[in-house]
């Protein structure tokens, strides 16, 4: 019995020792695994941080040309940039400055039209008034001559919607209301719209060969067939006298919209054509005085034309200048052209770049490279010629640029006038203008 009791006691001791050993071993394995897991997580975190550090955009990183680049979007932060207007949540499609120079309108796929206050461009925060485009989005926008209304082209509705701009009753700000839609008349997508500066009619152009002239209430006055296979662009002259279109052919056609002395619509008649390009026209622009036009073509040239001619006597527009652009910049097969209101420079957008050319001699004055993250969708001059606004696709921003190139050309022009001045009074006035323009340029070059 004693031996049996001793044996059982020994077995108990062994069992207890075995249990303690197993617990200790389990604790050791758990701690080891935990430490290994922490080491692996730490290594993983460090690797992730290193990868993020490599990917993280370095604001202020300079390219070989000394320009700051936003590496995440490949967009340069140019010294000519005056403002970057942020607010749209989708691609910005079109821009238009009001004739009084106080507002900039922008349309977007985010189903809004926004009116930006020009006086706030110099501020850090840029104010805007937002108008919703219910159940649709606007592709084009154009102010009325008095800046109290604007029209938009609707993407899905494929017609024109009129908006009214007014002061709030309490005088605290601006309000926008959608007034009415024009009846649907176009069978193909509308590619441009405009209100005549004389306030007598509205133009809309679609991708097929159709241009419609409307009265302000949405009644059709005339329908034109451009006979160009398709329309690539159409616009009204600033004087409100001409409607022009470009398309598949290498020409631009102009019609005169006629009203009688009682302001009643009479007819639309062929006026003249711009002939000379050897390939299709991308885009064109009128000068502010409607005496000149600029065209840009797939033939790698842009041209300036004198349209102040006696077309009723069969006089053709005169070619004033032919310029050449670098076709390698135009990766997206889309170009826009616009003469500055003072006519000193002509802006041409090529893909993501904007080139500013001397309108008189065709020389490239300045090239703004990689100004947007995607192809430029719109450019618009402020009526003062001091600023050029541009919109890009994917970055959803509007960028406003100082027109330093225009000031340079203005100074050169004034110096030429100074040499030709015949009186001390005129010379003194020109010298003062040169001093003021030089001072403005110096501020931009600081």
Characterise the protein shown here.
The protein folds into two domains: 81-402, 7 Propeller (Methylamine Dehydrogenase, Chain H), CATH 2.130.10; 413-445. Helix content is 21%, strand content 40%. The protein has three helices and 30 strands. It has helices spanning 2-55, 404-420, 424-444, and strands spanning 68-70, 75-77, 81-85, 92-97, 103-108, 112-117, 128-132, 138-143, 149-154, 160-167, 174-181, 190-195, 202-206, 210-214, 220-225, 231-236, 242-247, 252-259, 265-274, 281-286, 292-297, 301-306, 318-324, 335-339, 345-350, 353-358, 364-368, 376-381, 387-392, 398-402. It has a four-stranded antiparallel beta sheet with strand order 3-30-29-28, with no helix packed on it. Strands 4-5-6-7 form a four-stranded antiparallel beta sheet, with no helix packed on it. A hairpin with a 5-residue loop joins strand 28 and strand 29 (387-392). The termini are far apart. One of its GO terms (cellular component) is endoplasmic reticulum. Keywords: Membrane, Repeat, Transmembrane, Transmembrane helix, WD repeat. It comes from Nematostella vectensis (Starlet sea anemone).
- Which term fits the overall shape? globular
Strand order of the largest sheet: 3-30-29-28
Q: Rg, please?
A: 33 Å
CATH architecture of the largest domain, by name, is 7 Propeller
Q: List how many beta strands DSSP finds.
A: 30
Do you know the CATH topology of the largest domain? Methylamine Dehydrogenase, Chain H
Overall mean pLDDT stands at: 85
Separate helix tally: 3
Distance between the termini: 108 Å
Strand count, sense and barrel status of the largest sheet are: 4 strands, antiparallel
Model regions low in confidence, pLDDT < 50 over at least 5 residues: 1-72
What is the count of structural domains? 2
CATH class category of the largest domain: Mainly Beta
Beta-strand fraction estimate: 35-45%
Quaternary structure: single chain
Strand pairing plus helix content: what structural class? alpha+beta
The CATH superfamily title of the largest domain:
YVTN repeat-like/Quinoprotein amine dehydrogenase
Provide the helix percentage: 10-25%
């Amino acid at each position: 019995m004693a031996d049996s009791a001793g044996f059982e006691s020994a077995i108990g001791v062994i069992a207890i020792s075995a249990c303690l050993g197993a617990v200790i071993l389990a604790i050791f394995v758990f701690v080891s695994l935990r430490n290994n897991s922490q080491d692996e997580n730490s290594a993983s975190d460090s690797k992730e941080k290193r990868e993020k550090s490599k990917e993280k955009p370095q604001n202020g990183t300079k390219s070989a040309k000394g320009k700051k680049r936003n590496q995440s979007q490949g967009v340069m932060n140019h010294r000519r940039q005056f403002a970057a207007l942020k607010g749209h949540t989708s691609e910005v499609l079109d821009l238009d400055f009001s004739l009084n120079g106080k507002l900039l309108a922008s349309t977007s796929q985010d189903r809004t039209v926004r009116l930006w206050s020009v006086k706030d461009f110099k501020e850090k925060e840029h104010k805007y008034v937002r108008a919703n485009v219910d159940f649709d989005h606007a592709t084009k926008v154009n102010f009325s001559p008095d800046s109290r209304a604007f029209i938009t082209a609707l993407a899905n509705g494929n017609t024109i919607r009129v908006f009214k701009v007014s002061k709030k009753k309490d005088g605290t700000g601006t309000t926008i209301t959608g007034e009415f839609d024009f009846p649907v008349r176009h069978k193909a997508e509308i590619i441009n719209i405009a209100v005549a500066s004389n306030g007598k009619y509205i133009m809309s152009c679609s991708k097929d060969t159709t241009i419609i002239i409307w009265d302000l209430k949405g009644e059709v006055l005339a329908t034109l067939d451009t006979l160009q296979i398709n329309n690539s662009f159409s616009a009204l002259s600033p004087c409100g006298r001409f409607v022009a279109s470009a398309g598949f052919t290498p020409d631009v056609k102009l019609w005169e919209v006629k009203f009688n002395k009682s302001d009643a619509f009479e007819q639309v008649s062929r006026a003249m054509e711009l002939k000379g390009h050897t390939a299709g026209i991308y885009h064109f622009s009128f000068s502010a005085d409607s005496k000149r036009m600029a065209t840009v073509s797939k033939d790698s040239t842009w041209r300036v034309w004198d349209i102040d001619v006696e077309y009723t006597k069969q006089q053709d527009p005169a070619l004033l200048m032919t310029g050449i652009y670098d076709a390698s910049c135009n990766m997206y097969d889309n170009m826009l052209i616009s003469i500055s209101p003072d006519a000193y420079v002509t802006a041409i957008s090529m893909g993501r770049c904007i080139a500013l050319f001397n309108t008189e001699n065709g020389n490239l004055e300045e090239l703004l490279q990689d100004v947007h993250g995607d192809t430029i969708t719109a450019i618009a001059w402020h009526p003062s010629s001091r600023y050029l606004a541009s919109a890009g696709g994917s970055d959803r921003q509007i960028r406003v640029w100082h027109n330093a190139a225009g000031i340079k050309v203005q100074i050169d022009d004034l110096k030429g006038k100074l040499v030709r001045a015949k009186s001390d009074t005129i010379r003194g006035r020109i010298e003062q203008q040169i001093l003021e323009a030089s001072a403005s340029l110096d501020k931009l070059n600081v």
